[in-house]
Amino acid sequence: MKIAINTGGGDAPGLNAAIRAATKAALKRGWEVVGILNGYGSMYSDQPFVNLTHERVHGITMQGGTILGAANRGNPFEMPVKQADGTYKAVDRSDELIERFKEHGIDALIAIGGDGSMRIAHRLSQKGIDVVGVPKTIDNDITGCEITLGFDTACMIATEAIDRISTTAESHQRVMIVEVMGRYAGWIALHSGLAASADVVLIPEIPFSMDSITKKIVEIQSYGREHMIVVAAEGATEKGRDHFVKGKQIGQAEQLGGLAEYLEKGIAERTGKETRSVVLGHQQRGGSPSTADRLISLRFGTEAVRLLEKGVKNHLVVMQQNELRQIPLSEVADSYKTVPLNSDTIMTARDLGKCLGD
Ligand code: F6P
Predict the structure, then answer these.
(1) In this predicted model, what pLDDT tens digit does every residue of 270-312 receive, in sequence order?
(2) Separation of 183 CA from ligand 1 center, angstroms?
(3) Fewer CB within 10 Å, N or C, the chain?
(4) Is the C-beta atom of 279 inside 6 A of ligand 1?
(5) Partners of 136 in the β-ladder
(6) Is any atom of ligand 1 closer than 6 Å to the C-beta of 251?
């Protein structure tokens, strides 16, 4: 048995632990393991793989990033190909990729990735590749999976950053806005906003109004406090408006951004208070994984190999009620998981008096 491991999309803390776990579990069974370098895009180059051995994966559990490299421009169904006029066009090169898998004698693929990677994995499985998926994303937005690898560390980093921003907000009696990642789901914003005692938490699931935010600020001022923290998910939207988007490249997801600045201006104008905004950005994806992320990554990685051994294919390993289960890739390919509005975490936020923008 020869398997390939791919780390798709953006990186996340815990990826290396998952690579190590899958590699060691496979080697234990006498299988051969290769890692795909820098995403599927390298499959069209002369050097698509690296051999994964016990030595190569030694000591990487605590390392951030991915030893295999990651690329957002690696969708084989929409590969950006440069045209004669210098522009790029999306071309379906999936058949070539499948040929390369055959040439190299690869029997199965472990696709570690987020919703985009699972969509690709599902399409590859429909073309005859045996795939098992491992759910990775700081956004925690994969359908059917309660916790994805990378989420815990991202929340920990965001919480610590908001704590630090709170002390400077207090010194200067400012409103500080902290924009966190999460794409179209508010998991990071809600969890870190609650943990770091933010006053306002804006998530994509609940469109906000500037009136509601202003009302909260005025209410806090009436208690005699002049510093406030607003945590905004990058994908949060104002009622009746669309997401704030910075740009979109061929073969890539749209790049969100711009909300923090918009809020800074709007809040300053409406309240007359000194207001500053911070975009936490990629530090939420960087550095060493937390204990929880190391553990979940090791569990996911080894489970993927156990599933392949049992002949289970075209499924995603998921965590449900702290148990490892698997769901068909077809069920996750075209959806993503948002924060349920009736969840106890939302109720907790409301009972704590947080403004959720509505
Ligand atoms: O999906 C993970 C994520 O970090 C999102 O939270 C964010 O919107 C996006 O990736 C950023 O992508 P990039 O690294 O391509 O800017």
Answers:
(1) 999 999 999 999 999 999 999 999 999 999 999 999 999 999 9
(2) 7
(3) C
(4) no
(5) 149
(6) no
Place of tokens 């991915």: 66
- Is the beta carbon of 182 within 6 A of some atom in ligand 1? yes
With the CA atoms of 292, 298, 304 and 306 taken in that order, what torsion angle do they form, in degrees rounded to the nearest 10? Answer: -120
For residue 265, how far is its CA from the centre of ligand 1 (angstroms)? Answer: 24
All domains of the chain in start order, with CATH: 2-149+289-331 (3.40.50.450), 152-285 (3.40.50.460)
Residue 211 is which amino acid?
Answer: D
The burial of 22, by beta-carbon neighbours within 10 Å (0-12 exposed, 13-18 middle, 19 or more buried), is given as buried
Q: Which residues contact 265 (CB under 8 A, 6 or more apart)?
A: none
Q: What is the total residue count of the chain?
A: 358
Show the beta-strand stretches assigned E in 272-337. Answer: 275-279, 315-320, 323-328
Residue type, 199: D
Q: Using CA atoms, how far apart are residues 141 and 256, in angstroms rounded to an integer?
A: 16
Q: What is the pTM of this model?
A: 0.96
Q: Which amino acid is at 46?
A: D
